Amino acid sequence: MKTQLFLIHYAGGNCYSYQFLLPHLSAFDVHVIELPGRGKRMQESILDNFSMAIDDLYNCISAKRNGNPFIIYGHSMGSELGFVLTSRFEAAGNMPLHLIVSGNPGPGIRENKNRHKMEHDDFVMELKKLGGVPDEFFESSELFEFFEPVIRADFKIIETKDDITAIRIQTPVIALMGSEEEHHEHIDNWKNFTRGNFQSQLMEGDHFFIFKHPQKLKEVITSRTVAPKEIIL
User: Fold this and answer.
1) Number of C-alpha atoms within 13 angstroms, CB side, residue 77?
2) How many Cβ atoms are within 10 Å of 60's Cβ, its own excluded?
3) Which domains occur in the chain, in start order?
C-alpha cells in the first residue's frame, strides 16, 4: 500500500500548484489539498481566517485518509498550515510520518507586513518581489481582479493568525529553503518546534526555488531524510 502524501499550497495557490512535482511522485498516493475559492473549489466562499482554514484542511485530509502512513508537505503559507495540522492530527492519535516544510523559516521569524491591506500598486510590487505569480496575471486586469481577492485572503490568514509559537509536535520535521530567499539563515528555527528528528537543507534559488528542483524534492520526500544543513549552491 502506498504512503499518502498531502500537499498544501502556498498563498494564492490551488490544487494545480504542484503539477510540476506530481510526475515525480508516482510512489505515493498524492493528494493536493486546496482552500476554498480557487481551483476545483471555485464556487465556494473564500476563507480569510487561520482557524477556519485549519478546520477546512483538516476535514479535507481526514476525508481522504485510508489508514496508511502519511506525510504532510507545505510550501510557504502551507508550511505553517501544515505545522498546525500536524499538531491537530497528533492530538487525534493520527501522527504523520514526517512534516516537510519549505519556503518558511518557521513560527516567530517573519515580520508581519500586512500585505493583505496594501494599496494596489504596493501590492503588485510585493507580489513581483515575492515571485511565483505568472506575468500574465499582471498583464491582464481581468485575471488579476480574479486572483487578487484570493491571495489577499491567504495573506490575511497568515498575517492575522493567533500566535502558534507555543505549539510543539512529536512528528519529525524536514525544513527546506531557497539559498537566496529572505530569512533562509533562520531555517533551523524549525527544530525548536518538534521533539522528533529535525533536518534542514538549503537549495539554490529564491522563495519559489521548488520549481527549479522537482527531482531534489522527490528525493527528500521519497527518502524522508536529508543531510542536516546541507547547502547546495
Assistant:
1) 29
2) 17
3) 4-231 (3.40.50.1820)
b/e code 85-106 from CB counts within 10 Å (16+ = b): bbbbbeeeeebbbbbbbbbbbb
What is the identity of the amino acid at 228? P
Q: How confident is the model over 51-63, as pLDDT tens digits?
A: 999 999 999 999 9
Q: What is the pTM of this model?
A: 0.90
CA Rg value for the chain: 17
Question: Which tops the pLDDT comparison, 142 or 18?
Answer: 18
H or E segment and range at residue 102: strand 98-102
CB-CB contact of 79 with 101 (8 Å): yes
Q: At what angle do helices 141-159 and 50-64 cross, to 10 degrees?
A: 100
